[in-house]
Amino acid sequence: MHRSFTAAAVLGVLAAALAVPASASADSAVPYKGANTAAVQDDFNGDGYRDVAVGAPSAANGQVESAGGVVVLYGSATGVTASSQRTVITQATAGIPGDPEPWDRFGRTVATGDLDGDGYADLIVGIPDEAVGAEAGRGTVTVVWGGPSGLKGGATISVPSGYSVAGDNDCGFGGSLAVGDINGDGHPDLAVGSNCEGAVYTGPFGRDGKAAAVRSQFSTGMSRGVVMGDVNGDGKAELFWLSGPEDGNIRGPVYLDNGLSGNANRAVRFTLAHGFLGQVGDVNGDGYGDLVTGISDFSEPADPSGPHLGGEIEVLYGGPNGIAPDQAPHVYDQDTAGVPGAGEQGDGFGYGLSVGDTNGDGYDDVLVGSPGEAVGSIRNAGQATLLLGSAAGLTGAGSVGYQQNVTGVPGAAETDDFFGAAVHLADVNKDGKADAFVGIPGEDASGCIWIARGTSTSPAISGSLNLGGATAGVPSLDAGQWGFGTSFTSPNAE
């Protein structure tokens, strides 16, 4: 299948692997330590409901094209609807660092974590296209502070000393983000990936954006994506780096980062695993986090050394000893029994990924985006596929496919909609079942998201709704593939 996302782009800063460890709710069967000291994860205003941040990097600020923005949709007893309370954050918002400039694409990645430890989740925004001085595309990261009235004020998370050197254009610092408590001190830590080098910030953070300590430069080429989550039950988040493409092969390796200080010989390579983005959740309900990674395939022609035709996801199961470096991953693709569709060139299965318990059975499920999927002859219409967790682990049995030509899903499948470019699972109404959010960043002029409530079977098509970028307050002059719905606080390839 053909698609508009260029292979070169996918092999560049598009490697954004965002993983915010899930809390003990419908989004996970066990708590994953340290993403928030807030009572409820992703709760920016402290009302007890999870909120959802949606990136709109192509959003215009007046006539400033693709300055970017983030829309925060506040959870409630009725969930998130088109009329729900929401806040729009841009670089023109009072108290937010920087200025809206063409092609900054503020909001290409987003994450949450209570960095300052005040009990409210904070919003972390990656701006990997931002120029810094003469360095085009060097990238920056901004934190916006949560509080009783929601998000207000912010600070820049500065790159580590020595990170920026002459010629480091298009590093894309902030191309991936992860939050978790690596050292178990009760303060969330932040990891930032890029095309050049990664960085780890040890919490707590001050309101000036400065961390207690910074460990810089995880090796160049090994840190495009980053994931945190507890896979051995010790109450500390493990830190994984996903290198993404290696020598042109999008099936880059997975590394376990072993230390908070020093730079030498920290990485343990998982010899059989691959990843471009990922998240930790408990798909088999054994109380240990499992690492789920996505490896989308946009090769044209297909790369025989790459992932399964059309893309795949891999699952590495945690346990009391964590994940062994030689553990063989369990692989799922569109040719796995029970999974809707068929693996075809350019589908991009695994380009978006989120983990959460959609039916309340205690097992995390996995929602997978395939933005390059054709619907009939409609190119790049896109699809999202839900695979269910079970005591035996993830399974293709009972999988459900969602696309805009399915009866009851609002809208219609159109060329270059990219339905599934980003996906997110979160219980925003506290009913014990994760609700589904699917990004459609190419929809119309400004992009769109699809919202479906969790039920005892799967996210319900009946009663589902679309929310467009213009309605949400982030109109675009030309959305292309970067409209509203490009990113959520779940991993997606940016």
UniProtKB/TrEMBL annotation:
Stored PANTHER family: GLYCOSYLPHOSPHATIDYLINOSITOL PHOSPHOLIPASE D (PTHR23221), PHOSPHATIDYLINOSITOL-GLYCAN-SPECIFIC PHOSPHOLIPASE D (PTHR23221:SF7)
This protein's UniProt keywords: Glycoprotein, Hydrolase, Repeat, Signal
Pfam families cross-referenced by the UniProt entry: FG-GAP, FG-GAP_3
GO molecular function, one term: hydrolase activity
The UniProt record lists the keyword Zinc-finger: no
Name of the protein: FG-GAP repeat-containing protein
Keyword check for Cytoplasm: no
Signal peptide annotation: 1-26
Cellular component, GO, one term: integrin complex
GO BP annotation list: cell adhesion
InterPro entries in the cross-refs: FG-GAP, Int_alpha_beta-p, Integrin_alpha, Integrin_alpha_N
SUPFAM superfamilies named in the record: Integrin alpha N-terminal domain
UniProt-annotated stretches for the region Disordered: 318-344
